[in-house]
Amino acid sequence: MQKWVVANWKMNGSKNLLEEYKNAFKKSNNLIVCAPFTYLNETAELVFGAQNIYHEAKGAFTGEISAQMVSEFNIKYCLVGHSERRQYFGERNDIVRKKAELCIENGIIPIICMGETLEQYEAGKTQEVLELQLRECIPGKNNFWIAYEPVWAIGTGKTPTIEEIRSVHLMLREKLEKTVLLYGGSVNASNAEAIFGIANVDGALIGGASLDLAAISAIYSLASG
Fold it and tell me: What is the pLDDT of residue 154?
């Protein structure tokens, strides 16, 4: 079964990388490229997602980007609530929900990121944390995706066990029957096949590996096989 691949470049990338993606993934229907805003209008041959939007519809918020502005460039997806936004910019669950709602109002599918810290994981609080985030981050309308990203796995090279990922995604599926569920957190060409094989994992959110064309090509091939 075909899986989704969402490439999150974060504050990285270049026009050269964009050109490489264009050549490698032209007209791909299961790859979403979450590139910095400056690259989102560079080509119509890739499916783009934004990495963030502001939680107000408009106003005197210098330097911010609204959901409406993003939608005007035919961007159909947007990450919201990524752990780096929570950690470095103080985004709370209520802010994440506002962003998700604004995305939906403007025809954008929000990819709502959630996950536990290392301290919470070691304390056995993964499910408790996720249930709280589900209650406080999920918008009233159903057109959203969820990306489970354990904070302690992002950029560290560490990942939960296959059974732990399976357990979390089963819990999410029981609560969100028809929602697309992604896994993210140090997904690479070596572990992607096993992760794609887990029940209820509909795809992966790829960080560091998305900046390496060989790595993301290998992951995409596994997702499309």
Answer: 83
149 is catalytic: yes
- The model's confidence at residue 115, banded by pLDDT at 50, 70 and 90, is very high
Mean per-residue pLDDT, 60-87:
96
Total number of domains constituting the chain: 1
pTM strictly above 0.90: yes
Q: Determine whether 82 is an active site residue.
A: yes
Alpha-carbon distance of 89 to 55, in angstroms, equals 13
Q: Which of 91, 101, 116, 149 is catalytic?
A: 149
Q: At what angle do helices 213-224 and 15-25 cross, to 10 degrees?
A: 30
DSSP string covering the chain: ---EEEEE--S---HHHHHHHHHHHTT-SSEEEE--GGGTTS-SSSEEEES---SSSSSS-TT---HHHHHTTT--EEEES-HHHHHHH---HHHHHHHHHHHHHTT-EEEEEE---HHHHHTT-HHHHHHHHHHHH--SSS--EEEE--GGGTTTS----HHHHHHHHHHHHHH-TTS-EEEESS--TTTHHHHHTSTT--EEEESGGGGSHHHHHHHHHHHH-
Which residue in the list 55, 82, 91, 101 is annotated as catalytic?
82
Give the percent of the chain with pLDDT over 90: 91
Expressed as residue numbers, the domain containing 34 is: 4-224
Domain CATH code at residue 82: 3.20.20.70
End-to-end CA distance of the chain: 7
